[in-house]
Each structure stands twice: as structure tokens, then as C-alpha cells.
Amino acid sequence: MGKTIVITGAGSGFGALAARALADAGHTVYAAMRDTAGRNTSRVAEAEAYAAEHQVDLRTVELDVLSQASADAAVATVLSEAGTLDVVVHNAGHMVTGPTEAFTPEELAAVYDTNVLGTQRVNRAALPHLRAQEHGLVLWIGSTSTRGGTPPYLAPYFAAKAAMDALAVSYAAELARFGIETTIVVPGAFTSGTNHFATGGHPAEQGVLPAYEERYAGLMDQVAQRLAALAPADAPASLVADAIVEVVDTPPGERPFRVHVDPANDGSEEVSRVADRIRAEFLTRIGLDDLLVPHGTAA
To answer: Which one, of 11, 54, 3, 21, lies nearest residue 240 by Cα?
Structure first.
């Protein structure tokens, strides 16, 4: 049975790929993106063309994760048009690259605003409905950087993704008694097929850069090249979309808590396996093991 799904940041990259794959799988999908009447009009048109060509239910909705009013309006639109909402996919994110020292606190806060606070705004808009119906899935797009190998010059993004992962883990327990499931899909470093690196930001203040360039000349290019070399040539970014579809299509109560999609195998899956086991053991020790499985979904 098809579900109604909203995906943030679905104008390009993992979000656009997942929106199309989920629509192909028979779901009603709202590809959420900001400025649908402005700079993203072409992406809206592309989604409409895909829906018409493939005869699927792929729609777009205006949603700027930096605005609570926008998140509220987007969820209201989905509920008004579709009558329900079953799955929220937190995909919107922004990457910046450069020496960490070069970024102002305000620039770090802006990355955090998109990658972390944006999920909170969408949750505050969507969760009242999911709680009332006592079922649903919140699916977070994380990053292997939170626990795996972490090359330099990506610290603001890595820090924000680590914060988002911690938020997702806490939410999982807090939503369990409402029958709402949580899955964290954890992509590795896909250096092609997304716009992360191409549209990534850089520090506005340039004064500190020469000192780093003297000691770390060409480092960012080296990191990108070496990450690309680690991943198999036949590992497309669509693997992440495939993993999202598989999670959504898995029966309630059987969905995994965490799914890694990491062709480069940076070690995150191994570390996460230990961390998630310790989480389960600790909740059991303090008598809260019922929070490990959403109520009403046990197979």
C-alpha cells in the first residue's frame, strides 16, 4: 500500500534520487525544496516532467528548513492534498569546506541551522500528526563522518551531522511509545551524483588561508580525489535512494534502526554497531527497553 512521503532538500542529489525512486515504488512523494517559484523552478519542472513521463505520483512543495512557518505550511499542504502523512525524510543539508579556523562562529551556526535545526522545525510541523495517528516513520539521512574516518577541512559539516545523529537517536526513544519508527540511513562519501561538493560553501574571511595553504597545499583536492579512489567505480549515488526505498517498503516493526551505504567502508558501520548495541543494553539496564521497538509495530 502506497505511503505519503515528504523529503526535504529534494531538488537535487540524494533527495531528488530518492523522491523519484519512492514514486516509482508506488508512493505519493512530496519533493520539498525552497524557492520553488524562483531559482528552483527548473527543478519543479523536472519533477513534473518525471511524474508525467513515468506515470507516478511525484509532487513538489515549498519548504525552507530555515523557517518554521515554511515547514508548517508545507506539512499543512501535504495533509490538505493527500489527507495523510506517513513518512518524513530528513535529507536537507549543506556542506562547507576549508580550514576550520577560517570559519566564523556565525558561519558554523549557519551550517548547524540547516543540518540540525532544520530537522527540528520539520519535526515540530509533522510530529503532531504522526503522534495523533500513532504510526509513521522518521527517516534521517546521516553521514559516516559521525563515527567513521574524518578527513580534514570538513569540520563544520561533520560536527553538524554528528549533532543531527545524536538528535535522531534521542528522538527514536521519545517517539517509540507513539508507535513512530526511526531509521538512520548513513551514506558514505559519494563524490559524484550529488551537489554536496560542487555547491559547498567556503569561509568568507580569507586572512587565515595562506598559512594553511603553505602547510596543506591542495589538501581539499587531495581529499576529494582520494575519497573517489576508495569507492568502487560502479557505486552510484542512487544506492542511497535504493536503501531509502527498501526501508520505507519494509513492514512496520521490521525496519532497521541504522543502514549504512558506504562503498568506501570508512569504518563507520563497525563503530555504529558497537554504539547502537551499547544504547540498547543501557536502555535495557535502566528498564526502558520498551523504547527500542515502537509500540504497536512489533512483528
So the answer is: 21
Judge contact between 210 and 166, C-beta under 8 A: no
Q: How far, in Å, are 23, 35, 198, 236, 239 from residue 261 at the CA level? A: 21, 30, 21, 11, 7
pTM of the model: 0.93
Across the beta sheet with 58-62, the strand order is 58-62, 28-33, 4-7, 87-90, 136-141, 180-187, 258-261
Terminal-to-terminal C-alpha distance of the chain: 18
CB 252 within 8 A of CB 135: yes
Task: Please count the helices (runs of H) and the strands (runs of E) in the chain.
Answer: 10, 7
55-59, 120-124, 127-131, 154-158: least confident range: 154-158
Decide which of 139 and 206 is more confident.
139
Instruction: Name the residue among 95, 292, 121 with its Cα closest to residue 201.
Output: 95
Is residue 70 scored above 90 in pLDDT?
Answer: yes
The answer to whether 245 touches 23, Cβ cutoff 8 Å, is: no
One-character DSSP codes across 133-163: HT-EEEEEE--GGGTS---SS-HHHHHHHHH
Of the listed 157, 171, 212, 216, which one is catalytic? 157
Is 212 marked active-site?
Answer: no
Give dist(CA 190, CA 68) in Å, integer: 30
Rounded Cα distance, 283 and 160, in Å? 25
Q: Are 148 and 267 in contact (CB under 8 A)?
A: yes
Query: pLDDT, tens digit, for every residue of 81-103?
Result: 999 999 999 999 999 999 999 99
